[in-house]
Structure formats: C-alpha cells, structure tokens
TrEMBL record:
One Pfam family per UniProt: MIP
Keyword annotations from UniProtKB, A to Z: Membrane, Transmembrane, Transmembrane helix, Transport
Family: Belongs to the MIP/aquaporin (TC 1.A.8) family.
Protein's UniProt name: Aquaporin
GO molecular function, one term: channel activity
Membrane spanning residue stretches: 12-31, 87-107, 132-150, 162-183, 214-235
Length: 244
C-alpha cells in the first residue's frame, strides 16, 4: 500500500491526533462516576472506539500510527524511514496540542477541572509514581506487541483485513484501559493507555504545564519502545512471513 507524500500524510496524521485528543478530552466530564467499574467500562469504550475509528479512517492515507509510541517503534525496527517517522511525531504532537486547545475552548473554565482524559495521578492518593511507571511500561509494551502483531496476523491482500485491523487495535487499547483503571476513586490513578500524546495535548491545551507527574506517561512508554525494539531486532519474529 503506497502512502501519500510526507507533507500530506503529516496533515492527516495531525488531524487524526487532533480529533482523537478532542474526543477523549471532551468525554472527560463523564469520568466523574464514583464506580471504578463504571470508569473502567467508560474508558475502555472511549479509547477502544476512538482508536478503531481514527485508525480505520487514516489507514489508507498515513498507515495510522496515532500514538507516538507506535511511530517510534516503527522507526526503531526500520519499517518507517527516519524522516517520515520524525515528521509524523511532530504532526502527532502538534495535532494533540490543537485538540487539547479545542477542548479548552469548548468547555471554558471548566476544562481545568477535567481528568486529562485519564492522565491523572492524584498526589493525595495512595498510588505512587513508581507504581504508575510500572503499569505504564507494561501497558505500552503490551499495546506495541498486540498492535504490531495484528498488522501481521491480518493479511493485507484480504479486503476484510482493512476492516478487521482497526477493530482489533481498538480492542487492544480498550482492553488495556479497562484492566488498568481499577485504582479510582480510592487511589487517584485512572490507568494506563499507551497514548502519551493525549496526556500532552490535553495538559498543554488546557495550560496544565505545571503537572509534576506528566513524565510518568511518557518515559515508561518510550522505555517499552526501546526494549521491544531491541528484542524485535534480535529475534525477528516475523522474518519468515511474507507480510509487510
């Protein structure tokens, strides 16, 4: 599948991230529920459906990475050229920033009370940064393995593959969201998602730049990219498959 030129693809990657961050951010008022199960189901549906829809829409144009972690991993294993990958990363961050700004504009002053789409660690809670780092790392690693594995398991020559791949990617994101969201409301941690662009976009767009815990949503994810990237280079798990 030939992708369009870099600048066109970057525009759509930026738009996709803007839409994705806006959808997650504008839905944040829903997560005032007191039930951890209600929060978990809501986050799973939100991230799962948003990832599936944006991935399905952008797949023919950009390959639809959405998450900077997926883009960085694709660069690490040599699937995405360095120039295109870096351009995608800039587009994703820029789109996330615009998406966060639009959420702030739509919700007004009330945006400052939102949960940043789930990117929250309440310092007054019982949840420590080290626990968040561990959860974010394994969640990002699982997301990378599942999403990349789906791309190989669904044969691109079959037309149904283009329908099935986004659905499975969304399912993976929703599953991770649900499984890691059980620490609210008692511990003040919404869970891990594998999409640090959402955290960045909403924090910057809502001018919450003072949040001391923001690094916990970025550093573990890129550590997972490095770990699985090295592992992938050595093991070459899909080397015997005739799939791209």
């Amino acid at each position: 599948m030939a992708l369009v030129s870099i600048w066109k693809a970057c525009i759509f990657e930026m738009l996709g991230n803007m839409f994705f961050v806006w959808i997650v951010g504008i839905a944040s008022p829903v997560f005032t529920l007191n039930s951890p199960v209600g929060i978990g189901i809501g986050l799973a549906f939100l991230y799962g459906s948003a990832v599936a829809m944006v991935t399905f829409t952008l797949k023919p144009i950009t390959g639809s990475c959405i998450s900077p972690l997926i883009t960085a991993f694709s660069m690490a294993i040599g699937k995405t050229p360095l120039v295109r990958g870096m351009a995608y990363l800039y587009a994703q961050v820029l789109g996330a920033f615009f998406g966060g700004g639009l959420v702030s504009a739509a919700l007004g002053p009330g945006a400052n009370t939102l949960s940043n789409g789930g990117c929250v660690i309440n310092p007054a809670g019982n949840f420590k940064h080290g626990q968040a780092v561990a959860l974010e790392f394994i969640a990002a690693l699982i997301l990378l393995i599942l999403v990349h594995g789906v791309k190989h398991s669904v044969h691109p020559s079959q037309m149904r593959g283009y329908d099935l791949e986004p659905l499975l990617c969304g399912w993976a994101a929703g599953l991770i969201s649900f499984c890691t969201s059980g620490f609210l409301p008692l511990d003040g941690y919404f869970g891990a998602f594998g999409f640090p662009n959402v955290c960045f976009g909403l924090a910057m767009g809502m001018l919450k730049v003072h949040q001391a815990f923001s690094w916990a949503f970025w550093v573990p994810g890129f550590a997972a990219v490095f770990f699985y990237g090295v592992l992938y280079r050595f093991l070459k798990p899909y080397a015997d498959l005739l799939l791209v």
